[in-house]
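TA notes, week 10

Several of you asked for a full example with nothing omitted. So below is the full record: structure tokens for the whole chain, then the designed sequence directly under it. When grading your own attempts, check the secondary structure regions first.
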């Protein structure tokens, strides 16, 4: 059980960082309380991990061969990287941290599945672009529906609250389904966990991170990059959830951070590029670039001194 604590640490850091992506807009727009949203998200993350978490595990566990000791170091390296970024209030990609650490192991073992790696990297590029495009499509579609309903202020507010609860729940489900692999795939690859055990541990540890340490990054996503009104928050959540869930069926764990930042930028582009805080955007992009590099460097350093 002790080696799995590295995976639990990684799941906790993933939940702390990525919860902002599924409930941040709803909380920041003051349509849901943090405690309510975090509890609900934790439950749906666990459901997603248990029901659809297998395909991503199959992909990541095949990127390179590793033993249990290397799997533990890969998890710890990725977890430290994501935690540092969370302290820095940057929404980063846990997938990139995990893959960066796996590649560090792969360099030492001189074995990397280049076909699988190419598939993963392609999906990394497609995630923020897909999030932006999906946000623009959802925004236009919901705007048309909203205009035709002709609701008064109270009716519109109630409908938005229901929509945010549904979208946040769907986003949490997609997070668990897609990202459980990031937490425990290396232990499946090392032959230390079965897939059902891996999805259970992944879902529980991500939920723990959401409940205990997710507020900091939420502020960055929900209010510092682009100011979101409740309607835009609903659009962003739906776009992120659809994008991430799509990649679950492709079998590649992707970043909810990149999906939702892409969606937020898509909203910003619709409202005018001046609404996008470019300094915050550059900080986030720098975090994305550095994440796999830091994770790979950390695991190589650990291997050297262990």
């Amino acid at each position: 059980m002790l080696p799995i604590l590295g995976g639990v640490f990684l799941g906790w850091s993933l939940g702390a960082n990525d919860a902002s992506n599924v409930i941040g807009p709803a909380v920041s727009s003051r349509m849901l309380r943090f405690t309510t949203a975090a509890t609900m998200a934790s439950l749906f993350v666990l459901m997603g991990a248990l029901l659809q978490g297998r395909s991503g595990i199959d992909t990541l566990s095949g990127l390179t061969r590793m033993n249990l000791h290397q799997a533990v170091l890969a998890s710890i390296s990725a977890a430290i990287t994501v935690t540092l970024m969370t302290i820095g209030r940057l929404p980063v990609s846990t997938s990139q941290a995990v893959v960066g650490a796996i590649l560090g192991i792969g360099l030492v073992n001189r074995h990397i599945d280049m076909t699988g790696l190419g598939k993963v990297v392609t999906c990394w590029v497609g995630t923020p672009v897909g999030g932006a495009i999906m946000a623009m499509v959802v925004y236009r579609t919901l705007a048309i529906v909203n205009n035709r309903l002709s609701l008064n202020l109270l009716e519109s507010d109630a409908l938005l609250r229901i929509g945010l609860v549904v979208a946040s729940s769907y986003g949490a489900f997609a997070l668990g389904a897609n990202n459980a692999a990031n937490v425990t795939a290396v232990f499946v690859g090392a032959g230390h966990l079965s897939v059902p055990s891996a999805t259970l541990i992944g879902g529980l540890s991500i939920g723990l991170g959401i409940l205990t340490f997710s507020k900091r990054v939420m502020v960055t996503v929900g209010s510092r990059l682009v100011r979101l009104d409740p309607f835009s928050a609903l659009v962003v959540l739906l776009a992120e959830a659809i994008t991430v869930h799509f990649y679950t069926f492709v079998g590649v764990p992707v970043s909810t951070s990149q999906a939702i930042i892409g969606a937020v930028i898509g909203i910003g582009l619709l409202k005018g590029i001046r609404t996008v805080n470019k300094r915050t955007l550059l900080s986030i992009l720098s975090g994305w670039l550095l994440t796999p590099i830091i994770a790979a460097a950390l695991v190589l350093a650990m291997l050297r001194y262990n």
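The longest helix spans residues 153-189. Use that as a sanity check on your answer.
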